[in-house]
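Something for you to look into today, if you have time. What I am after is a single protein written out in full by you. I want to see for myself how the chain folds. Could you add the entry underneath, on a fresh line?
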Amino acid sequence: MRRLLLVLALLWAGPALAVEPGEMLDDPALEARAREISKGLRCPVCRNESIDESNAELSRDLRLLLRERLLAGDSDAEAVAFITARYGEFVLLEPDRSGANLILWLAAPTVLLLGLGAGALAVRARSRAAPPEALSEHERARLEEIMKG
């Protein structure tokens, strides 16, 4: 039981270990803002991992850049806009839902609904099909002859 608790504690604390103590800001409010923003920024090196969780060197650089921007007086939106302008929308874990991104956001649900509709039409068409006719006496006799072999 103790081993399980230790493993769970390490898994839970794992992402928190990515931000090194030397990176943290002295002001707890600014640090909280930085941590909240960094949870929404994707590590360009890692796959779908935030810069807050990633141990990659580039993620560390992005965390430091974010903290520099906050210390310079940027709002949360301005800091994110600065990083997005430098690295592109790819760094956003959840891109905005406008413009070309709207097509991507709506594509999956649309395809799912089209697939469900096609499946429903196929089931409906199959249920409307005429039931198979019963075998004639000649066909039944031939089948029994084949089965006896």
